[in-house]
C-alpha cells in the first residue's frame, strides 16, 4: 500500500493546486474539476490493490471538502477505476497522450454523472447547464495542459520512493 | 493462476466488494473519516491563505510614502464618520431598549460579531461555499448567519477545529424567508443559478400579487427574521423581475445577488450570545 500512499500525496498536491485555481477563478464564476486525473494514472499504471487504494483515498479527499454525501466521489472514482483497469491491456498505456486521453474521458464521465446527481437542486436546471458546460470545457482544457506534467510527476514520485512497479502488468 | 475470464472481471469483483463494504460501514466511521480527511487537508489550505496574506503585505510595502499618507488621511476621515455612527447607534439602541421595556416587547436576539478571513472559495455550478479561518477555536456554531458589507453571505454549514465551511445564499440548497423592503409579508427565497462571468442569482416564490419590480426599478429583498437564523432587515439582493406564477395566487421572480459575493476576502459571523 506504500504505492497508494505515494500516489495519494501527488493527488493531494494536485488538489491543492486546483483549489487555489478555483479560489482565484471564483470572481469569474468558473470552476475546474480534475477528477479524471485522480483516476487515470492509478488505473493505467498501478496494480489492482494499490490502484484502488490511491483512488479511494483521492475520492475521500474530494468528499470531505465538498457538500455531497460522503462516499459520492469515492464510489464514482472507484467505478471509473474499474472500467479503465479492465480496458488497460488493450491500450498503449505507456504513451503520455493515451494517459491524457483516458484522463479526459474519465473526467467527462465523472463530471456528467456529478452534474446529473446535483442538477435537481437547481431552481432552473435548464439554465444551469450553460454554466456546467463552460466549466467542463475549461476543466478539459486544463487537464490536457497539465496532464503530461502530472503523470510525469507521479512516475517520478514512484521512482523516488522506490516503489515503481517493475512491469506494466 | 486464475482463469482469464475471472482475471478480466477482477476489478469489478473488487468494486462490488468495495460497494458492499461501503454500505455496511457504520455512519460513525464515515463521519470520522470525513472529519479526518478535512482536518488533514486544512493546514494546506490555511498555509495557502497565509501565503496570500503575506503576498498582499509585500505588495502593500511597494506603495510610496505619498500614497500611504493619502490612504492614512482617507482612513482618518472614514474613522471620524464611523465614530459619529457609533454614537448614533448607541443612542438608537438605548431608545429601542426603552421602548421594549415600556411596551413589554420581546427583545431581538443578541449576536457577537466575529470577523473572519476567507481561506478558500469553492463556487461551482453544483455548490457554492467558502471556508473561513475561524472554527471551533472561536466558538463558531453550526447554523450561524454570516454577513458582509453588502448583506447576507450565508450560514455556517460545518465547523472544524480551526476553520468553518459557509454555505452561500447563491447555493441552490439554501432557502430562507425574506420580505420585500417596505412590506411585511414573507416570501420564499432560494439560491439559484450562477452564470459564468455574471452575478449570482436567486429566485423568489410566494410573492404577493401587488408587488412589482423590474430591472429598471428593482426592489430590495431583506431577511424577514422568520426561521430564527438571520436577524431581520439584512439585504439579500435586488428583485429584478416578478411575474405571475402558474397558480395565479402568487408571483415568482428573480433576485440579483451582490456581485461582491464571489470575491469576498473577509466576512462576519454572527454568533448568538445566548443560544436557546
Written account of the structure:
The complex is a heterodimer of chains A (169) and B (276). The mean pLDDT of chain A is 91. Chain A has one domain (2-160). Chain A has helices spanning 2-25, 35-45, 48-64, 72-87, 96-118, 125-160. The longest helix of chain A has 36 residues, at 125-160. Chain A is globular. The two termini of chain A are 17 Å apart. Helices cover 75% and strands 0% of the residues of chain A. Chain A is mostly helical and 169 residues long. With 276 residues, chain B is an alpha+beta fold. Among the domains of chain B are: 11-61, no CATH class; 175-260, Thrombin, subunit H. Chain B has three helices and twelve strands; from the N terminus they run αααββββββββββββ. In chain B, strand 10 (235-244) and strand 11 (251-256) form a beta hairpin. In chain B, 31% of the residues are buried. At the A-B interface, helix 1, helix 3, helix 4, helix 5 and helix 6 of A face helix 1, helix 2 and strand 1 of B.
What attributes does this structure have?
heterodimer; A: 169 residues; mainly alpha; 0% strand; globular; B: 276 residues; alpha+beta; Thrombin, subunit H; six-stranded antiparallel β-barrel; 3 helices; 34% helix
In short:
The complex is a heterodimer of chains A (169) and B (276). Chain A is mostly helical and 169 residues long.
Uncertain segments of chain A are: none
Q: What's the shape of chain A?
A: globular
Q: What summary fits the major beta sheet of chain B?
A: 6 strands, antiparallel, barrel
Provide the residue-averaged pLDDT of chain B. 89
Structural class given helices, strands, pairing of chain B? Answer: alpha+beta
Number of separate domains of chain A: 1
CATH topology of the domain at 175-260 in chain B: Thrombin, subunit H
Question: How big a fraction of the residues of chain A is strand?
Answer: under 5%
Which structural class do the helices and strands of chain A define? Answer: mainly alpha
| DSSP strand count of chain A | 0
Helix content of chain B: 25-40%
What is the name of the CATH superfamily of the domain at 175-260 in chain B? Rod shape-determining protein MreC, domain 2
DSSP helix fraction of chain A: over 70%
CATH class of the domain at 175-260 in chain B: Mainly Beta
Helix and strand pattern of chain A: HHHHHH
* Strand order, sheet with most strands of chain B: 1-2-5-4-3-12
What is the second-level CATH architecture of the domain at 175-260 in chain B? Beta Barrel
Query: How is the main sheet of chain A built?
Result: none
Instruction: Sketch the topology of chain B as an H/E string, one letter per element.
Output: HHHEEEEEEEEEEEE
Amino acid at each position: 500500500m506504500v504505492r497508494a500512499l505515494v500516489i495519494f500525496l501527488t493527488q493531494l498536491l494536485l488538489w491543492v493546486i486546483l483549489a487555489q485555481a478555483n479560489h482565484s477563478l471564483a470572481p469569474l464564476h468558473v470552476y475546474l474539476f480534475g477528477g479524471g486525473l485522480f483516476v487515470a494514472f492509478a488505473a493505467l499504471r498501478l496494480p489492482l490493490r494499490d490502484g484502488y487504494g490511491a483512488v479511494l483515498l483521492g475520492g475521500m479527499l474530494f468528499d470531505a471538502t465538498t457538500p455531497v454525501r460522503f462516499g459520492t466521489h469515492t464510489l464514482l472514482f472507484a467505478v471509473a477505476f474499474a472500467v479503465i483497469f479492465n480496458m488497460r491491456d488493450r491500450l498503449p498505456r505507456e504513451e503520455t497522450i493515451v494517459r491524457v486521453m483516458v484522463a479526459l474521458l474519465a473526467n467527462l464521465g465523472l463530471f456528467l454523472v456529478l452534474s446529473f446527481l446535483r442538477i435537481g437542486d437547481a431552481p432552473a436546471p435548464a439554465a444551469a447547464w450553460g454554466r456546467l458546460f463552460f466549466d467542463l470545457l475549461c476543466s478539459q482544457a486544463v487537464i490536457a495542459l497539465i496532464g503530461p506534467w502530472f503523470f510525469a510527476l507521479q512516475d517520478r514520485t514512484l521512482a523516488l520512493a522506490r516503489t515503481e512497479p517493475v512491469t506494466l502488468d | 493462476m486464475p482463469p482469464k475470464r475471472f482475471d478480466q472481471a477482477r476489478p469489478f469483483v473488487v468494486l462490488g466488494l468495495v460497494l458492499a463494504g461501503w454500505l455496511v460501514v457504520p455512519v460513525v466511521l464515515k463521519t470520522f473519516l470525513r472529519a479526518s480527511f478535512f482536518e488533514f487537508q486544512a493546514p494546506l489550505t490555511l498555509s495557502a491563505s497565509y501565503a496570500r496574506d503575506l503576498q498582499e503585505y509585500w505588495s502593500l510595502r511597494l506603495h510610496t510614502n505619498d500614497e500611504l499618507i493619502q490612504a492614512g488621511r482617507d482612513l482618518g476621515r472614514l474613522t471620524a464618520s464611523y465614530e459619529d455612527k457609533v454614537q448614533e447607534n448607541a443612542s438608537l439602541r438605548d431608545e429601542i431598549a426603552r421602548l421594549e421595556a415600556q411596551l413589554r416587547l420581546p427583545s431581538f436576539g443578541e449576536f457577537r460579531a466575529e470577523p473572519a478571513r476567507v481561506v478558500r472559495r469553492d463556487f461551482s455550478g453544483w455548490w457554492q461555499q467558502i471556508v473561513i479561518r475561524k472554527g471551533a477555536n472561536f466558538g463558531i456554531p453550526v447554523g450561524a448567519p454570516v454577513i458582509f458589507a453588502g448583506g447576507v453571505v450565508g450560514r455556517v454549514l460545518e465547523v472544524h477545529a480551526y476553520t468553518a465551511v459557509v454555505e452561500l445564499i447563491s447555493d441552490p440548497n439554501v432557502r430562507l424567508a425574506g420580505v420585500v423592503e417596505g412590506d411585511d409579508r414573507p416570501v420564499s427565497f432560494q439560491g439559484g443559478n450562477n452564470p459564468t462571468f455574471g452575478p449570482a442569482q436567486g429566485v423568489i416564490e410566494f410573492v404577493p400579487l401587488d408587488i412589482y419590480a423590474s430591472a429598471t426599478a428593482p426592489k430590495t429583498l431583506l431577511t424577514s427574521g422568520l426561521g430564527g437564523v438571520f436577524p431581520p432587515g439584512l439585504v439579500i439582493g435586488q428583485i429584478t423581475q416578478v411575474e405571475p406564477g402558474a397558480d395565479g395566487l402568487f408571483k415568482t421572480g428573480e433576485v440579483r445577488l451582490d456581485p461582491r459575493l464571489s470575491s469576498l476576502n473577509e466576512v462576519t459571523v454572527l454568533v448568538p450570545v445566548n443560544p436557546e
